[in-house]
Amino acid sequence: MSRSSCELQSYVDLQRSHDYRWKLFEKKDRDFIYVRDRDDKNKTHSLTPLTKHSKQDCKQAWADVQNKGEDNWYKNVKEDSNWSEIKKFILEYLEKSNKGSSNANAKSHLNSLEKINPKLTWGSIKDWLHRDHQYGDSGFRNKLDSLSQIRKAFFLRDGEDPHWLQKQLLERERENHNSMKPRNRSSKQEGAKVRAIISKETAEKYFDENIDQYPLGIWCLAMMLCYGLRNHELWHIQKLDNGFILVPWGLTKSIDDHAVWPLYQSWLDRYHLFDNFKKHQERLNRNSKPDIRDAEDVSQRITLSHKDDRGLCYNNKVLGAYITDHTIGSKGSMPPLLGDNPKRKSHKIAAIPYDLRHTYAVTMASDPNWSHVSEEETAKAMGHSLEVHRRNYQLWIDGDKQRRRLIDGFKHPY
Length: 414
Description:
It is a single chain. The chain is mostly helical. It folds into three domains: 3-68, no CATH class; 83-181; 200-409, hpI Integrase, Chain A (Orthogonal Bundle), CATH 1.10.443. Helix content is 46%, strand content 9%. The protein is built from 17 helices and ten strands. The protein has helices spanning 6-14, 55-68, 83-97, 104-116, 122-130, 138-158, 167-179, 185-191, 200-210, 215-227, 267-270, 277-287, 316-326, 353-366, 375-381, 386-393, 399-409; strands spanning 22-26, 32-37, 44-51, 238-239, 245-247, 258-260, 292-293, 312-313, 338-340, 348-350. The strands form four sheets. A three-stranded antiparallel β-sheet has the order 1-2-3. Helix 3 (83-97) crosses helix 6. The chain is elongated.
């Protein structure tokens, strides 16, 4: 007997003196531990990811056998379960737990699983995961995210993962996926949408020329550039002291409540950003009303009566589209705002509202006046992780400006 299976063999020998329903065994050509039903020799289960190589895993498998006693091994998946039943259960979970716009991929993948109807084994699920996609591409990531949602639904209902969808196995697949994602900055630039970067002088000239005709539109654009906001966050932000604003979690895509400083504090007076805050925010709410749901049960619409109240905004995509349709860009109703093209410095390109958020990130990274603020602090202020900040928002930083920021901000110790 190989050394790798000696640990398991000691428990196989031990179980002969016990009459537990489930019996440990190994397959010579497999690393994982298995159990067989004492009363039905054809009923076996893999204990993936537990392996016969690990002393700790073998100990855990033996403890599981004792804990199961005469019970079925997996209580959270019915013997007659199929993907039609699972789909119904998962859809109910999604409707109660997530924002509507975030469920599109999961619903599509549930339809695919129902149609293909893979067996409830990790091998079959993994085959589906890799079907038409590979590590590193967005389609693979989306399918992996959907499987994570399915696993979470089972875990919340049953207190444990289904045997065919263990958290450790999904994490392993995500690690493999992340290791294959493009790391090269130039290759990312080639595939990314070019963002218009708006200088302070260009923005002020545009705002000054158009504020009388488009007061609400200019307030929205000035707030987005000044605070690095997503379109829909204009409905949810709150004023704080010293020119700061609060972007709340749940109502927005942000990962946590976070305070944001103004990129250009002088704009608060020049464009009356705080003086007209309530007036313009109320007008936005009249023009396109947020759909706020209870965070515990998103089927229930609620009204937030206090600044500390939180919920989930179910129609942020609609709110964002309102800004796109009523301000700048090919769909907008305001005059075009031309910004710098990071790929071709001598050419100008028309900006869309979301480019103003990118402008905030680029300015924070390249303007020497902001050299005292770290990448981590800027990422937190923008409501996303440092990884996302570097990957998506700093693609178009001007190399000359970065070097100038380093040179101008450098302090020689001697």
